[in-house]
Design goal:
Elements: E1 6-17, E2 23-32, E3 37-42, H1 44-57, H2 84-89, H3 91-102, H4 106-109, H5 112-117, H6 122-125, E4 137-140, H7 149-152, E5 159-163, E6 182-188, E7 193-198, E8 201-206, E9 210-212, E10 229-233, E11 252-257, E12 263-268, E13 271-276, E14 280-282, H8 289-295, H9 322-353, H10 373-379, H11 382-385
Antiparallel strand pairs: 1-2, 1-4, 2-3, 5-6, 5-9, 6-7, 7-8, 10-11, 10-14, 11-12, 12-13
Subcellular location: Cytoplasm
Protein name: NCF1 factor
GO cellular component, one term: cytoplasm
Length: about 400
């Protein structure tokens, strides 16, 4: 028998799962050359990592050398916070991507990277569930959408951003832009460097130099989370601006606001400030070669440090002052302390109420008065009263 390869990949729909936390997975029916058919489940972040590795394996076919030679299809980067709407809207793009992938030259479509990614895993046969959590909700792709992949969606539309100031590149992997340039964002990295294309040019551009077309604020930027997420500092940084923090490698901090320009607001004890996200690693997460490579890059510039900004929007971006971050963060910490103290007091009260009587000190009996001499002579034996004579 020859090598194993995939004949066809069909997107069936997606599942909304609630264990270990709410997330979405896509369902694919994979048809193999031995006529077997298997259903596999993949998160979009997994698919995107697979896609990036595939491009690195075939740089010519991915257009890295000459954009005109690209045959590997585009795939938009994951959103910061994928919801059900984005998961549903992405189905057409994924269906077309799989259709194009299988029909690429055999050196790509039948390579081990593709075959291994779509092989059945243990989790595909036995998905992780919890009887106390809601069962997964299944959303199938409409049957009409499966007839012809070309009818599902048109060409992949990349997000267009506008440069607010001139940026001169400092390395060959970056791309220079002029104020007013309209660039298409291919990939948004949480480190603040976005991979963009402008006509026949492609490269990394600081997110701080780009603004969305429909308004000054980023629709994908989350709200502050004063509960905080535990992160570990992977690279030391000395503060340059007053609202930044100086930290050493190995320090443990809490991230309370993830901003798209790659400068996150963090909390160290009760102090808050900005720190480059590319120098942080989520606590408990294993370091990867990709993250090691990112740490070797310099931190992107901050929006507040860009001069000669020329925005097309009348209103400026909404900015939260550092004092607001500190006040709300301190208020959250104090509330948490009160909750812990109240719960501890309740525990102590319960222990006192339930304490057994055996552990409580018992009252001592009163000492009887000493009998008089006459009483001893009249009532005691001879041996006793002889002792008092």
């Amino acid at each position: 028998m020859g090598d194993t390869f995939i004949r066809h990949i069909e997107l069936l729909g997606y599942e909304k799962r609630f264990f270990p936390s709410q997330h979405y997975v896509y369902m694919f029916l994979v048809k193999w050359n031995d006529l077997s058919e298997k259903v596999v489940y993949r998160r979009f972040t997994e698919i995107y990592e697979f896609h990036k590795a595939l491009k690195e394996m075939f740089p010519i076919e991915s257009g890295d050398i000459n954009i005109e030679n690209r045959i590997i299809p585009h795939l938009p980067a994951p959103k910061w916070f994928d919801g059900q709407r984005s998961t549903e809207n992405r189905q057409g793009t994924l269906a077309e991507y799989c259709y194009t992938l299988v029909n690429l030259p055999h050196k790509i479509s039948r390579c081990l990277h593709v075959v291994n990614f779509f092989k059945v895993r243990h989790d595909d046969m036995n998905p992780v569930t919890d009887s106390q959590i809601k069962k997964p909700e299944v959303f199938f792709l409409p049957k009409d959408s499966k007839k012809n992949p070309t009818d599902i969606t048109g060409p992949i539309v990349l997000q267009t951003y506008r440069a607010i100031a001139d940026y001169e590149k400092s390395s060959t992997s970056e791309m220079a832009v002029k104020a007013g340039d309209m660039v298409d964002v291919v990939e948004k990295s949480e480190n603040g460097w976005w991979f963009c294309q402008l006509k026949n040019k492609r490269g990394w551009v600081p997110a701080a130099y780009l603004e969305p077309m429909d308004g000054p604020d980023e629709s994908e930027e989350p709200e502050p989370n004063y509960a905080g997420e535990a992160y570990v500092v992977q690279k030391s940084y000395t503060a340059v601006e007053e609202d930044e923090l100086t930290l050493k490698e190995g320090d443990t901090i809490e991230v309370i606001h993830k901003l798209l320009d790659g400068w996150w607001v963090i909390r160290k004890d009760e102090t808050t400030g900005y720190y480059p996200s590319m120098y942080l690693r989520k606590a408990g997460e294993v370091n990867t070669s990709v993250k090691s490579e990112l740490r070797n890059r310099s931190a992107p510039p901050r929006r507040s440090t860009i001069r000669n900004v020329k925005s097309i929007h009348k209103q400026s971006r909404k900015q939260i002052s550092q004092e607001t971050y500190r006040r709300n963060s301190k208020k959250y910490i104090q509330n948490q302390r009160k909750v812990r103290e109240n719960s501890q007091n309740k525990v102590n009260v319960i222990i006192e109420k339930n304490e057994p009587d055996d552990n409580k000190p018992k009252a001592q009996p009163a000492v009887p008065p000493r009998p008089s001499k006459d009483l001893i002579l009249n009532r005691c034996t001879e041996s006793t009263w002889r002792k008092i004579l």
